[in-house]
Known about the structure:
The protein contains 22 helices and 13 strands. By secondary structure, the chain is α+β, with helices and mostly antiparallel strands. It folds into 2 domains: 6-154 and 325-403, D-Maltodextrin-Binding Protein, domain 2; 156-323 and 414-464, 3-Layer(aba) Sandwich (D-Maltodextrin-Binding Protein, domain 2). It starts with 5 loop residues before the first helix and ends with a helix.
Amino acid sequence: MLRHNRAATARLTIAASTAAAAVLTLTACGSGGPESDGTVTVWTVETQPERLAIQEAAMDAWAEDAGVETDLVPVEEDQVSQLLSAAALSGDEMPDVVNAISPGLVRSFDRDGYLDRDAAAEVVEALGADTFTPEALELTSDGDEVLAVPSDAWPMMVYYRTDLFEEAGLEPPTTYADLRAAAEELTTRGRYGITLSTDAADPFTQQTLEFLAQGNGCELVDDAGEATLDSPECTETIELYGDLASEFSPEGSQGVESTRSSYFAGQAAMTVWSSFLLDEMAGLREEFTPSCDECADDPGWLAENTGVVPVVEGPSSGGDAAGYVEFVSWGITDGADPETTDFVQYMMSDAYEDWLSMAPEGKVPVRTGTAESPTEYTDAWSELEIGVDSKKTFSDVWPAEVTDTLAAAPESADRWALPQGQGAILGPITSELPLAKAAADLGSGSIDAAQAQTTMQEAVSEIAARD
């Protein structure tokens, strides 16, 4: 699943032809069988120059001790699936491991036979399964079998203006009812109650819808792969989304840039966004800085007056509301060099803090520590510096309440289709975006909630029936 945050929108652009050329010129590695060729080849979707530098330094340090060469190949996230399939079909050499891949890609690659389950299990066992958050392992496994090594996570959250909520005597938006009431109360002349994505062509819109769905037990499919968006739980979710988008949010198509801008300018009292917004809101990235009236004299004012909610509980959740959290993983390929497992262990231990430091606000550790020090990595993560053009530690910018909420987000996570063993459907759902299209029509008022729900159900049913 494509990240709607700056990890996607501001990522270094690498043309498909360049990446394809990299595939064709890789040194022979995992596809040659279990024998080592002396080079561990890593495909990375973390392609910004500063992130590549951190990865290369960690790989060089491991290679020097291991006596093995490493080759880091940057590949854009929206190209990695196509390029891996092309390499497999053409007989070209495969990478030994691909990093930061989403749950949907993990399921897709496993279904196509690209992943080595035993190698992933070996890494998790060596590191200690109990040092990972259970949810990360559950959503990266097929039953009892680990498919990939979970690395880190980022949650979707509601960001809300604590000053406006306090003035209006409103409760934090932790339930459907409180979210709707706040959006209505805080929609006034010159300000909207909320801004959320309604762009039909943006995965961000589908992620926003799923974020709300997870809080109410609205599931995409059941264990048999049958579409379940016609459930009463999903009716409530779709109706809430429709109300928020059409009545209390800015008109027109809203996406990554506009929702961020509206909230940063003080034009909206709430927004739904990923955790990648945290450093930008603190005024640490010149390209995206708060522009509200109060922010002119104090760039940190908006951060000081913003609270976050990772789970919005719906009326039909039964007390089992969940949040939307994107887990990313190391996928070790079938036939990878035997040294690859040692390399991934290194990246998840000695180099783990360096890995998290690439973007701490969007890389919440899912390996919290070691057997000897259970909170070692979470503790270190909370003291890492965030920001791009300017840097400050989490604790210098955000109160412990926010960082604690962020650190705990993976513990309340769920995702569509994964617990049901139907994760492969996420690929076409995300690439074709039928849910985003229906949600966009609902937000614009061109269809009502009942029509949107029928359209979504039929689209998922059609995709599920293809196999």
